[in-house]
């Protein structure tokens, strides 16, 4: 899997160049002298398998986007906390992360031609069922801080601009009740075969918890848009399959389009993300065959029309099978009219996270997400133990 290296620096704001680094022990802030911070930063940058001018980097060179060099070649995510960078305006201006699939790329299966149900998940590989019927997305009731506090929005900078996805807090077996882990899609943190890690990745749980539309939310104070704060990615991991095969559009890499982030609060608080939200989902990396699953609830913040990205929606449907690469675990597919922006959002089955949104067609009639197996579990274990 492609892993993450923690490098957390703080700055006074988007226009400032002052930076340092910090670490944690037992979820508590660690005080470091400026000299030790500089030494740690130098060690981390010098350890990368590419040539970086450390002095220039610390003086603001990290702002210069170069998708063809160190962001991909480093092979490791570098996280920087920039105080006050993600304000309400920058969040609203974020574009939806479009992963549209041309229906012509998918095997056309007519009703009556589908494969029989399988008892073993391995037998679902390579199988595609007929397209599910569309299911209208339903607005989740507010306040989200009470109903779905573990679900939120993920923001990132990409070579194409500031983008947005969805994600959810997941349980950490090493820190029961005190997780700082977030699950999302691989394409929300890494460009796949076409580039490298995105910058300034952050998670906002229960974004806009009152659920008011865009024309009203622009008048709200920032504390009402992000009442549970901003949580910056310190470590990030995604699968080798996504890194080697993933593309910005189409279904390439979708079978393992999964990522995990370890996050830290921008305000430096000592409370964990799970403690703050009061919720987290356990991940199932060994789900039964599709035929033995009940309905999924797919949750996210769709941002492309007719949605505005300010409200949380969901679809509930019985899963079917979708295969674009017969060598890989099957993908789950449900009818759903949510659009781009819902990428990375959780698929909940019996209160357990069983997948995340990866792809959908351009006419927004269904969504698909990967079955999480050993490769995704390795990414999860690597990030949580880093």
Structure report:
This protein is α+β, with helices and mostly antiparallel strands. 16% of the residues lie in helices and 25% in strands. It is built from ten helices and 22 strands. The strands form six sheets. It has a six-stranded antiparallel β-barrel. A six-stranded mixed sheet has the order 7-16-15-19-20-14, with no helix packed on it. The longest helix has 13 residues.
Entry summary:
With 386 residues, the protein is α+β, with helices and mostly antiparallel strands. It contains 10 helices and 22 strands.
- What percentage of the residues does DSSP assign to strands (E)? 15-25%
Largest β-sheet summary: 6 strands, antiparallel, barrel
Helical amount among residues, as a percent range? 10-25%
Shape call: globular
What's the Cα radius of gyration?
Answer: 20 Å
Count of extended strands? 22
Which strands sit side by side, in order, in the main sheet? 8-9-10-13-12-11
What class, by secondary structure content?
alpha+beta
Instruction: Name the poorly predicted regions.
Output: 1-34
Report, as a whole number of angstroms, the end-to-end distance: 13 Å
* Count of individual helical segments: 10
Overall mean pLDDT: 83
Question: What structural keywords apply?
Answer:
alpha+beta; 16% helix; globular; disordered N terminus
């Amino acid at each position: 899997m492609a892993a993450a290296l923690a490098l957390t620096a703080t700055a006074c704001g988007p226009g400032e160049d002052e930076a340092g680094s910090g670490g944690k022990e037992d979820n508590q802030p660690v005080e470091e002298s400026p000299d030790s911070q500089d030494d740690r930063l130098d060690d981390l940058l010098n350890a990368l398998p590419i040539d970086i001018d450390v002095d220039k980097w610390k003086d603001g060179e990290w702002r210069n986007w170069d998708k063809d060099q160190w962001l991909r070649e480093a092979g490791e995510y570098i996280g920087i906390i920039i105080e006050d960078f993600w304000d309400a305006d920058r969040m609203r201006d974020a574009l939806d992360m479009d992963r549209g699939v041309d229906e012509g790329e998918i095997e056309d299966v007519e009703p009556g031609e589908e494969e029989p149900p399988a008892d073993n998940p391995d037998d679902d590989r390579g199988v595609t069922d007929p397209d599910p019927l569309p299911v209208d997305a339903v607005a989740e009731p507010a306040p989200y801080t009470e109903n779905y506090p573990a679900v939120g929005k993920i923001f990132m900078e990409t070579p194409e601009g500031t983008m947005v996805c969805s994600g959810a807090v997941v349980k950490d077996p090493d820190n029961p009740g005190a997780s700082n882990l977030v699950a999302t899609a691989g394409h929300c943190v890494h460009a796949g075969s076409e580039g490298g890690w995105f910058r300034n990745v952050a998670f906002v749980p229960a974004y806009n918890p009152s659920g008011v539309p865009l024309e009203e939310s622009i008048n709200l104070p920032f504390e009402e848009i992000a009442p549970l704060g901003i949580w910056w990615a310190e470590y990030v991991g995604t699968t080798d399959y996504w890194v080697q095969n993933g593309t910005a559009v189409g279904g390439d890499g979708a079978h393992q389009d999964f990522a995990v982030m370890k996050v830290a609060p921008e305000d430096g608080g000592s409370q964990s993300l799970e403690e703050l939200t009061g919720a987290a989902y356990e991940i199932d990396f060994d789900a039964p065959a599709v035929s033995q699953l009940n309905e999924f609830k797919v949750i996210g913040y769709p941002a492309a029309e007719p949605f505005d990205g300010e409200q949380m929606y969901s679809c509930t449907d019985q899963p079917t099978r979708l295969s674009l690469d017969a060598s890989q675990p099957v993908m789950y597919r449900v009818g759903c009219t949510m659009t781009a922006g819902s990428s990375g959002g959780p698929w909940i089955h019996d209160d357990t996270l069983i997948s995340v949104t990866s792809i959908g067609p351009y006419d927004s009639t269904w969504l698909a997400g990967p079955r999480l197996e050993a490769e995704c579990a390795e990414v999860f274990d690597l990030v949580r133990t880093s």
